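Team,

Forwarding the record for the chain on the shared tracking sheet. I've put the sequence and predicted structure together so nobody has to dig through attachments.
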Amino acid sequence: MMNENKKVDLEFLEDMGFDDNYVLEINQRIPKETIDILNENKETVKANILYLKNLGISNYQEAFVRFYNMFLIEPNSFDEIFSKYDKEDLIVKLEKNIAILEHL
């Protein structure tokens, strides 16, 4: 159980449109060391989240919760992962099953 006085890490996710419940879940599931790395690289993380949002992926929050390490990839490389696929087809597939993200 989470300590009520514990500072919520990754607050920048709320600015990216994340629901409070997702932020709490992330803080409970992700190791503290990884949270520190995500915070230290928040500009990269934010750029990659924004990329997915702008692409039209509505379940970007679930993508982050499940594959948070992927969001530490340099933004140009992150873009290259997705740009080799047909945009509309990719959106449909990711929204149907976000788990395919780890196979891209």
